[in-house]
Amino acid sequence: MSRLARLGLTGDELAELEAQLKDIIEAVGKLSQADISQVDPTTQVGGLSNAMRDDVVVPGLSAEQALANAPTTEAGLLRVPAIQ
Amino acid sequence: MSLLEEPIAELGRRLRRREVSAVELAQAALGAIHADDERLGAFLRTTEESALAQAEAADRRLREEPDGGGPLLGIPVAYKDVLCTKGVETTAASRILAGFIPPYSATSVRRLEEAGAVGLGKLNCDEFAMGSSNENSAYQPTRNPFDVGRVPGGSSGGSAVAVAARFACATLGSDTGGSIRLPASFCGVVGVKPSYGRVSRYGLIAFASSLDQVGPLTKTVEDAALVLQVIAGRDERDSTTSPAPVGDLRELLAAGVAGMRLGVPREYLDMKLDPGVRAIYETAAAGLEEAGATLVPVSLPSTEYALAAYYVIAPAEVSSNLARMDGVRFGPGFAAATDLTQAYEEARHRGFGDEVRRRIALGTYVLSSGYYDAYYLRAQKVRTLVAQDFERVFQEVDAIISPTAPTPAFALGERVGNPLAMYATDILTLPANLAGISGVSVPAGFADGLPVGLQVLGPYLGEATCFRVAAAVEERADVWRVLPALGGSG
Predict the structure, then answer these.
(1) What is the pTM for the complete model shown?
(2) ipTM greater than 0.90, yes or no?
(3) Can you say whether residue B418 is alpha, beta or left, with left for phi > 0 and alpha for psi between -120 and 50 degrees?
């Protein structure tokens, strides 16, 4: 899970998290007792569907604004290490 | 008496009679923060310069048009740090967003600014709003002003403390499983979780998008209605906002509860409740009955599964929403990494605290192939059962009353090492988020010197009904003026 979620946890952290997740997953296992045979899953609580708007161009952020918080940029692009 | 102890409507009258200026109010608020917030830790940062500029602008509007402007013109407010504020650092109390300066403001913030409210700064909370005690902030704990050795509740702890300590007249928080109502109960203030879609989530840093709602924390029920009136309503930028008209949220405040039917859920009262909490609840319920309401025993049988469903659905949404926190577009960067995956891991390992890691890992697990049906899909079906319980009950009653939390504020450190005990803090509040309905916590009394709130749950878009009941509780309890001593064993 740590690798899938890119959490980068180390040995001790993994052991502690594993123990806690075990407890939590056991607790949420209570769900298996509920009778769900007659219901659909909830998808939207407000009962809305297909909220549409007109497809019109509106002003947005400039590239400069959009990149202002990035730690490393180059020539108007985000710079990241290569995939090895 | 400090001006900030007055309700918003009274301050509005004084502003218009020129007995006080918006600048004086802002200065009084900032002065109180400087004097006392070092002990309490409610604010992560104050925005004095812009506060005074906004206050001067409000005074200009008041001079030019003494009868114009809405009720929030010149009123000092503050925002939970999960709400984006244009040009003002917004961290969600996480290290991974340290230094993040949003290029836009949340719709709720923007609407308050347009109404002339004066923003004092950004309030501490649990990291990404995940927690029930405010102890998960990466920066500082926030302390309960009624006993600084105790937590203020979470995750909108800073928002509750800022109102309780009279630093601000109103604050905004966010409520995903009780994060407004719980700290409101622990700190003796009013807290509102609007129905899902009543308030725009645009610019709210997402925790669990199908559960999150922005709402106000205030001293009084009327103040809460005034603030919600301004921030509620359809927003083009959040397609989940309801197109239904908001209506006058103060309409029923003085109507009283005579003739109302109020549901008392057996499952909530069968829980292990602190005796002080139970006594205050019973007194408040008896008071409502005396005032002419009929108490109706009701059953919400799916309550026993609600906590489990919540702790599958919320973490699942967390694992997905927080994938964007990768250190590439914002955050402190990753100087040492030579590989992209390593860079992500480095940024996220350094950036996230324990609770956030826990929820991301749990969410990743329940969404993973092979476990999806057993956990996530099942939880979404249980969510339907929880919603159906409420729908059925609201055919019989106008609103539901219960305690907001099983206990008053607990000690700092008491539940940090035990995630399951911490999660159970929200057992009475999170069903409303699963069902998307409206809820209010209103101060109902004190147990051993600690505030205790009563929760009023209303149907979907039933905010005015919640306020009607809450106003009756407030009037009879008559505790909202009680000030915290800012002392205790801390």
Answers:
(1) 0.97
(2) yes
(3) beta
